[in-house]
Amino acid sequence: MTVRKAWIVAGAAVAVGLSFVMLLVVGVYIVAGNLAGGVGGASKALAKGAVPAAYADIVRKWGNLCPAINPALLAAQLYQESGFNPKAQSAAAAQGIAQFIPGTWATHGIDGDGDGDRDVWDPKDAIPSAASYDCKLASYVKDVPGDATKNMLASYNAGAYAVIKYGGVPPYKETQNYVKIITTLEESFAAPVSRVDPSKQAAGAIYYAQKKLGTPYLWGGEGSAADGGRFDCSGLTQAAYDTVGITLPRVANDQWNAGPHPDRDELLPGDLVFFSDDLGNSRAIRHVGIYVGGGYMIDAPRTGAVIRFDPIDTPDYFGATRVTEDGAKALPTTV
User: Is-contact 239 288, C-beta < 8 A?
Assistant: First the structure.
């Protein structure tokens, strides 16, 4: 939503570009059909910049504390709990980046950095404590059938007794949703090891965005009548995906977590592409567009400009997200 270097597209070029995008709309359906059910999967390593640099090494180290967790899963929990905010405090008195309540911290907080204290507000203590607590829960339910990670997450939400009683994830809607949310978010924080499946909704999102070419930018704009049909960058991407039934968060740095992250040479039309002045921290992302192929995106760049085609290969290119319906649904409403 902030200023980026401008690249002005002449009217004739836009007309040609529209035809180009319409071909891509057809092409992305073909690609989706050809790759549907293809190779997917993700490693347990963190995606580039997924965790703020100040915490990345801690998450990598402690995310391998036991087999039931991994760095991407631990990152997903921290993001879900606090959005990596070490000063977060909830109405229920949950505190810090890992949102421990005082009673749980008193029992399970550890001195993660070895400085002689246990400080719930210090991520160097709180992140190791979150990993240690996860592993402790996993040990309580180690003999329960099923997936050890899902049983651990269910224990985190409903208690180990419920998992033992039901022989796995208990039939509580809240618990089942929690397990699905964290395991889905895990995919967003993990670095893929192979090509990720294309979004089935990508073509519709592009179709919407290309109809908005030439629309003036408005900071905070969401395309409403009150906004005069104008958008800022994340307002445009949110509106485009809303037309195909996917609800994205309002701001760009949260939209980053709406799915897995393809490499630059694996981009497909419809992927969201992101830009930042800090290439090591997804929370610092400040701009987003919709990739259309050929090294270009449709974006709402800045005040005084219009929605247009822009190149993506700039020094501030951060990465891309292949939006998934489950990925978007898993995102917290506020972080």
Answer: no
